[in-house]
Design goal:
The complex is a heterodimer of chains A (322) and B (424). With 322 residues, chain A is an alpha/beta fold. In chain A, 59% of the residues lie in helices and 8% in strands. Chain A is globular, with a radius of gyration of 23 Å. Helix content of chain B is 57%, strand content 7%. In chain B, helix 7 crosses helix 8 and helix 7 crosses helix 9. Chain B starts with 8 loop residues before the first helix and ends with a helix. The chains are: A alpha/beta (322), B alpha/beta (424). Chains A and B meet through helix 3, helix 9, helix 10, helix 12 and helix 15 of A and helix 13, helix 14, helix 16, helix 17 and helix 18 of B.
Chain lengths: 322, 424
């Protein structure tokens, strides 16, 4: 007996199955009819279907075995432009057999590339434009350099509407024959703010806990974000540095979190209403968190920097009396 | 020049019998117990890692042990044994049973001299030798806490020798004075002992040097010949000096007085800031300095600008030491940092997370970063709450056992047993 993640199981395979982003889908279908596509930039928030639609497009263009005609790269995983260059070069070398005269390079999260890397990317796009088409996806199109934007047909993906998300979740519930409360699906929508991937993940985890209702949904969200982070902050603010440091180690060992993961979560927690400290202190902490994150990205040591952060919290906490 | 062969005193006055070894009773007892266990075939650790500061008598103790209990001692310097053939020689020796030639004891001196880069694989090769040995093996090290020696720490019984006191050193020096017919002032011996800081070997060398001109050794001759040596300290000794430094130069010296790398020593300081400091102000100031040191070290690695090293050392030494609000000598027990023990676990956990992200990113058509942040947390909820369902997903993605264990934590057994159950 086996099961897949529903985010994969219920992913639309072809453009016909895509229920939202209607105008975009219509325009793309016209490209397919002509068997020609331009370079494209899919821009929009996470979980709105950019990558899914790129795959569906390739599927409709080349058929079931489309993945041999598509090179998938992820800029946030492969930050080095040399890696991207080598892979594109390798991929573009072989010719396409069939009625579509080009192959597709899908470069996900292109806005994570530095502008220098994007300049190099622009040259790649020119160099191989005879045999390849680039589809770039980005959360923030403003972070894509102009020369690339001007070479691409830009598609703006919008956050999914409440009825789109709730409708899709309902569809999945029916397919899976699980009972779910309407209100629960609304709550999922509110938590995920139109990010379909997270919405589906939460639904599946809630279903695993039992009936999908408001309680299980909140429980899933609570469990997914380790309480240890908040506990660690609270211990530090109470001046219990040693216990806070122990929690930090647990987080690194049990969850495999890196220092950057942890400081980002800390940053989110600081502004939650659960952490009862004056706003001006929150600002001081946020500033220091930013400094720590910068140091970590620069290559500093996770544990030492985070310990320094916790030591500062312990000091601040004493001044404001948590 | 006498007719008998000249021997340096450090060799001439080596203890012949284990009872002559001064003030290491605990180490002696442990070592003898371990050797007896070997003789009686009781299962235990097959090797000992004997460690202590330079000149405390590690090699002498092993030699005396061999002589006392009638073992043939095969001595090898591990840092010379980097070549494959040498390791093979040790392995061959270790694998022989003691026959007509008598019982064998193998001494691998200075295993901390193995260079993690130049002698890559050396530690692993030694571990293999130890696993297969039929003869007792003793390794010595000044500092067994280097990261790359971890496999040796795990496979061997760790026995610590302590730094000798001034009194111990004087006892031995006095014995030698009598044997050599020297006239030695007590003040002179005290001065030698003080300068030796527990390094008996250097003390004996100094005594020999001071007596070279005259059979009468005075404090003036000692001052003329004996030197303060650059000492290498065990990490806890260096921490004692660092935290209790009264001057900047002492704290700075302490920061470089171990043979740990800077990163490794920072780990020790990191562990013990709260061991030493009590108030939040002091803890914070010390960490602020240490984190700055860490930043400088990172920049050095990145830019290869070694000029920056002095800033790093100033932060990790004096920066940490002068975080105090008032000076008071405090003795603390500085234990081995938890982190060194947990390092392997932390690393494994991170690797599992990466491996899982790799598997799922391809299937979910997204980046590893998104999988880590938006998928794995929910997967964990499923794996820790609904083992039967988790097992189906694990099968769906053919997740290897170690990833299932990592995801399910305390409920790993349940998930794994559901995975094995045939379809009903």
């Amino acid at each position: 007996m086996s099961e897949l993640l529903w985010a994969e199981k219920y992913r639309p395979r072809s453009l016909d199955e895509v229920i939202n982003q209607k105008e975009i889908v219509e325009r793309l279908k016209r490209f397919i009819a002509e068997k020609n596509i331009p370079h494209m930039l899919f821009a929009g928030p996470p979980g709105t279907g950019k990558t899914t639609i790129a795959h569906a497009l390739a599927h409709d263009l080349y058929g079931e075995n489309y993945r041999q005609y598509m090179l998938e790269l992820n800029a946030s995983d492969e930050r080095k432009i040399e890696v991207i260059r080598t892979k594109v070069k390798e991929f573009a070398r072989s010719r396409v057999i069939g009625e579509v005269p080009f192959k597709i390079v899908l470069l996900d999260e292109a806005d994570n590339m530095t502008s220098d890397a994007q300049q190099a990317l622009r040259r790649l796009m020119e160099l191989y434009s005879a045999s390849t088409r680039f589809i770039l996806t980005a959360n923030y199109p403003s972070k894509i350099i102009e020369p690339i934007q001007s070479r691409c047909a830009v598609f703006r993906f919008t956050s999914l509407k409440r009825e789109d998300v709730v409708g899709r979740l309902m569809y999945i519930c029916n397919q899976e024959r699980i009972s779910c409360r309407d209100r629960a699906l609304d709550v999922i929508y509110e938590i995920t703010e139109g990010d379909m991937r997270r919405a589906i993940n939460i639904l599946q985890a809630a279903a695993a806990l039992g009936e999908v209702n408001e309680d299980t949904v909140y429980k899933v969200v609570g469990l997914a974000h380790p309480r240890e982070v908040r506990e660690m902050i609270q211990l530090a603010l109470q001046g219990n540095f040693i216990e806070a440091r122990k929690k930090l180690r647990d987080l690194m060992i049990n969850y495999g979190l890196s220092g950057v993961d942890i400081i980002k979560q800390v940053h989110r927690e600081i502004f939650s209403p659960e952490i009862k400290i004056p706003d001006e202190v929150k600002i001081i902490i946020a500033d220091y968190a930013g400094e720590i994150q910068f140091r970590l990205v620069e290559g500093a040591d996770d544990e030492i920097q985070l310990n320094a952060f916790l030591a500062r919290l312990a000091l601040l906490g004493r001044k404001v009396k948590v | 020049m006498s007719s008998e062969r000249y021997l340096p005193w450090v060799i001439k006055y080596r203890p012949k019998n284990i009872n002559e070894v001064v003030n290491q009773d605990e180490a002696k007892q442990k070592l003898i117990a371990w050797l007896k266990a070997w003789e009686e075939g009781r299962v235990g650790k097959k090797a000992v890692l004997l460690h202590g500061p330079a000149g405390c008598g590690k090699t002498s103790l092993v030699e005396a042990l061999a002589r006392t209990f009638k073992y043939q001692l095969f001595e090898m310097n591990a840092s010379d044994s980097r070549r494959k053939t040498d390791i093979e020689r040790i392995a061959k020796l270790a694998s022989q049973t003691s026959g007509l030639t008598g019982r064998k004891l193998i001494l691998l001196d200075e295993v901390d001299g193995l260079d993690p880069r130049a002698d890559e694989g050396g530690v692993e090769a030694l571990v293999e030798v130890i696993e297969n040995t039929r003869n007792p093996i003793i390794m010595t090290a000044n500092n067994p806490y280097r990261d790359h020696l971890r496999p040796l720490r795990e496979i061997a019984e760790i026995i610590q020798m302590k730094r000798l006191s001034e009194k111990d050193v004087i006892t031995v020096l006095d014995r030698i004075c009598k044997a050599e017919n020297l006239q030695c002032d007590l003040a002179a011996l005290r001065e030698i002992a003080k300068r030796s800081e527990g390094d008996l070997r250097s003390a004996i060398n100094d005594l020999e040097a001071a007596s070279a001109f005259n059979k009468k050794v005075t404090i003036d001759t000692v001052k003329a010949v004996a030197v303060y040596r650059n000492r290498v300290y065990a990490p806890w000794e260096a921490l004692q000096k660092l935290f209790n430094a009264t001057y900047i130069f002492q704290a700075r010296e302490a920061a470089t007085s171990t043979d740990l790398s800077h990163d490794e020593f920072i780990t020790w300081i990191n562990e013990h800031i709260p061991t030493y400091y009590e108030t939040p102000e002091e803890v914070w100031r010390a960490y602020e300095a240490l984190s700055r040191a860490d930043v400088y070290l990172g920049r050095i690695v990145k830019t290869q600008n070694w000029d920056l090293l002095s800033y790093a050392l100033e932060m990790m030494g004096p920066g940490v030491a002068f975080a105090r609000s008032a000076y008071k000598y405090k003795w603390r027990a500085f234990k081995m940092p938890e982190r060194i023990k947990l390092l392997a676990e932390t690393k494994k956990s991170r690797e599992y997370r990466e491996a899982l992200a790799e598997v799922l990113a391809g299937r979910l058509l997204t980046s590893r970063a998104i999988v880590k942040n938006d998928v794995i947390p929910y997967l964990r909820v499923i794996f820790t709450n609904n083992p039967a369902y988790a097992a189906k997903i694990a099968n769906g993605y053919k997740l290897p056992e170690e990833l299932v264990k990592w995801l399910a934590g305390p409920r790993a057994k349940e998930v794994l047993s559901f995975m094995k159950k045939p379809k009903k």
